[in-house]
Amino acid sequence: MGTRPQARAVCTNTNDHEQDALLLEKRPVKERDSQAVLDSRMVLNRTSIFRATLLIVISACCFGSLTTVTLLAMQTGFSLVNVIFWRFSIAAVLLGLITWRTRNEHRFNKAAARLMIMGGLAQALISYLSFKALDYLPVGALAFLFYTYPAWVAIISSVRGQEMLTRPRLIALAIAMVGIAVMVGAPHVIALSTIGILMALGTALLYALYLPMIHEAQKELPALLASSYLVTGIAITFFVVSLMTGGINFPGTATLWGYLFLLSVVGTVFAFGALMAGLHILGPVRTSIISTVEPFFTAILGAIVLRQGLTLAIIAGGALIAIAVIILEQSSVREEPVSA
Fold first, then answer.
1. How far apart are CA 125 and CA 273, in angstroms?
2. What would the DSSP string read from start to end of 104-135?
3. pLDDT, tens digit, for every residue of 256-269?
4. Is 336 helix (H, G, I), strand (E, B) or coil?
5. Which pLDDT band holds residue 5 (cuts at 50, 70, 90)?
6. What number is the average pLDDT over the span 323-337?
7. How far apart are alpha carbons 81 and 174 in whole angstroms?
8. CA distances for 76 relative to 72, 90, 300, angstroms
9. What is the dihedral of CA 13, 19, 22, 24, to 10 degrees?
10. How far is CA 46 from CA 210, 289, 333, in A?
11. CA distance 209 to 2
């Protein structure tokens, strides 16, 4: 008795599907083909956005390892300038080898020159100041001040008319900023060094200006090749700085070499390669918001490696950042236009 209505329901659903199929068949061929193209593009669009979001998360985690590994390298007696020089020099060589064949297809041009200059000036300064500010600020305060940069990126891009500040982006940005505040604790400005605050905010503003510039410059080049030019520019700058500040020291232990290779491969090659690939699809605003995953991963790594402890605030802040990333990923497909 109880199975017959169920069977009739199944038959009804089957008939409905058959009717839909017949209606679809009766539509003009051109209209059916157009709808099929739209559907396939929507699938590709969702897939590419998901992959780009995943790449930015991976990039943020790779960058998030830098603080811990750099501190470990400096504990061996190596100076900050030398650590940064070897990090980018090894990475430049590795990226040069990886992109050797690609260079034949994409000759050195204005875009490549711009990336080298931006790397040698802006990124080199950001890399140095972000670590130097730790002389004046605790890690939590530095993270809080530096990770205001997604807000600056959103504001600058909106003012320039480059990217719309949509409601989902505003919501995701607000949630991410709250997550950072919860994670590190809103610092009491009076108790902090003025020099440290200026360095941290200056680095955030510089990065907010620099990220859209990279986005524009790397459009003509593959992600790894763009990363290669950027990293080479940074390596050249720190080669000169090292010579001017006491010379280049050669790593003397296997442990130090290990730290430097971790910084080069994970914190530079993987980090910049994934950043460039994701940035190309998502643009600077979404990329910067998703990148707020970085301090959460830094805190996790610090708790595991440096035994700094994992607090409830860190977990709660990380959860809020994850929510912001999910909101962006889900809303991005609806925001992206799909042309017929």
1. 20
2. HHS---HHHHHHHHHIIIIIHHHHHHHHHGGG
3. 999 999 999 999 99
4. coil
5. very low
6. 67
7. 35
8. 7, 19, 23
9. -80
10. 27, 19, 6
11. 67
Q: How far apart are CA 274 and CA 38, in angstroms?
A: 28
DSSP state for residue 2 in the 8-state scheme: T
- State the pLDDT at residue 22: 45
Return the number of other C-beta atoms located less than 10 Å from residue 307's C-beta. Answer: 8
Tell me the torsion sign for CA atoms 71, 275, 109, 91.
Answer: positive
Task: Say which range, 20-34, 123-137, 151-165, has the weakest mean pLDDT.
Answer: 20-34
Residue 15 clears pLDDT 70, i.e. is over it: no
Amino acid identity of 266?
V
pLDDT tens sequence across 153-166:
888 888 777 777 78
The string of DSSP letters for 51-111 reads: HHHHHHHHHHHHHHTHHHHHHHHHTTT--HHHHHHHHHHHHHHHHHHHTHHHHHHS---HH
pTM: 0.74
Asked if 226 and 115 touch (Cβ cutoff 8 Å), the reply is yes
Tokens 């300038």 map to which residue?
Answer: 81
- In the numeric block, the tokens 């010579």 are attached to 243
Q: For residues 235 and 124, give the distance between their C-alpha atoms in angstroms, rounded to a whole number.
A: 8
State the CB neighbour count (10 A cutoff) for residue 138.
15
Hey, what are 239's tokens?
A: 């080669």
Asked if 215 and 156 touch (Cβ cutoff 8 Å), the reply is no
The string over 48-83, giving b where at least 16 C-beta atoms fall within 10 Å of a residue's C-beta and e elsewhere, is ebeebbebbbbbbbbbbbbbbbbbbbbeeebebbbb
Cβ contact 284:211 at 8 Å:
yes
